TrEMBL record:
One Pfam short name: DNA_pol3_delta2
Positions of the AAA+ ATPase domain: 26-226
Protein name: DNA polymerase III subunit delta
Enzyme Commission no: 2.7.7.7
């Protein structure tokens, strides 16, 4: 499958993008949408690789073997620029800088490709800066915007982009990808694909990180331990601690790798005091990492809420006897007992409480206070 191997269950999308990559005049602006875990960014990078592929036969572009394919996929191709923010939203200055870069001619390939991850993180004023660049792009520039749904992008942007809709891949396809690409144990891959609800990134992390699996187990078992308000308050603090630990684990290796790469690039000495210029650059990197940590914690808290919701989704499925596969099949006995002690109406109310907490967490509400209010509602 060449560059498309990391897109399980997306046959129609692959066919659409393969045809576009084979064209000599592909559409200049694209909008990739799909639920979390559907592989929007993977699809954007694969499409960029196919557009730049060195195969002389247009029908064979996206081979996955040539230098352009490899560099586009691993993030080192000079003609593929990935626009991502580590903050809660893009700033106008960030977008202006990328719009200016989009004016440059390709350095070696046929196209200069601008990938915008999380395009839904743009405020209206910021999006307007991008609008003109998409309306009147240079002849060799292609924009690829990624967002959860078309509604998350302003209609003025949406109307100027060719849509590509990705779907949540089938659980079995995700499990097979983990076995084939990461060498995962088949049983563990099936478990990770199921409990992540086919979110490729989350499933991959669950396969690779035993501690991440333990943290998730603590989250989904939490409703089983709630007996009173004091339990709820303790549980709320535990959820925040889990989210912080998860965010720290996700950031630690990346932060250290960035630090080592910067010191190497600047020619820093192995021992002794660092020169002032290098210390200044290092301090700037540390400030950027601190800003990114805020978003990482926010994303981790949201993931905690999603995992907690799966407990009550399973309870509701048992109460209504829908016959649906349980996400947390490993807890079937506990889920059945819990379902017998409550009603579907109570379960829906608890799911609403989690949804409300997720909404509060998207604002500046204290995570501990939001979690405490939610945990009390789960009693």
């Amino acid at each position: 499958m060449g560059v498309w191997t990391d897109l399980p269950g997306q046959g129609a999308v692959i066919e659409q993008l393969s045809r576009a990559a084979a064209s000599e005049r592909p559409t200049h602006a694209w909008l990739f949408t799909g639920p979390p875990g559907s592989g929007r960014t993977n699809a954007a990078r694969a499409f960029a690789a196919a557009l730049l592929c060195e195969q002389p036969d247009p029908a064979a572009r996206g081979c996955g073997r040539c230098r352009s394919c490899h560099t586009a996929l691993n993030g080192s191709n000079a003609d593929v620029m990935v626009m991502v923010t580590e903050n809660v939203s893009f700033t106008i200055q960030e977008v202006r800088e990328w719009v200016a870069k989009a004016q440059d001619k390709p350095s070696s390939g046929r196209w200069r490709i601008m990938i915008v991850e999380d395009a839904d993180r743009m405020a209206e004023r910021t999006t307007n800066v991008l609008l003109k660049a998409i309306e009147e792009p240079p002849p060799r520039t292609i924009w690829i915007l990624c967002a959860p749904s078309p509604a998350d992008v302003l209609v003025t942007i949406r109307s100027r982009c060719r849509p590509v809709g990705l779907r949540t891949p089938p659980q079995q396809d995700v499990a097979e990808l983990l076995v084939r690409r990461d060498g995962a144990d088949p049983a563990l891959a099936e478990f990770a694909a199921r409990v992540s609800q086919s979110h490729i990134g989350v499933a991959r992390r669950l396969v690779a990180d035993e501690e991440a699996r333990r943290r998730r187990d603590r989250i989904v078992r939490l409703p089983l331990r709630l007996r009173g308000v004091s339990d709820a308050v303790i549980a709320a603090g535990e959820l925040v601690d889990i989210a912080n630990a998860d965010a720290a684990a996700a950031s630690e290796a990346r932060n250290e790798a960035e630090r080592e790469a910067l010191l190497h690039a600047l020619g820093a000495p192995d021992t002794g005091t660092l020169p002032p210029a290098i210390r200044s650059q290092l301090k700037q990197l540390e400030e950027e990492q601190k800003r990114r940590a805020k978003r990482t914690v926010s994303d981790s808290l949201d993931r905690v809420m999603i995992d907690l919701t799966t407990f009550f989704r399973d309870v509701l499925a048992l109460q209504l006897d829908t016959g649906a596969q349980l996400i947390n099949e490993q807890l079937r006995g506990e889920l059945e007992a819990y379902a017998g002690r409550s009603t579907p109406e109570q379960t829906l109310g608890r799911m609403d409480a989690i949804a409300e907490a997720r909404q509060r967490l998207s604002t500046n509400v204290s995570p501990v206070l939001a979690m405490e209010a939610m945990a009390v509602s789960l009693l």
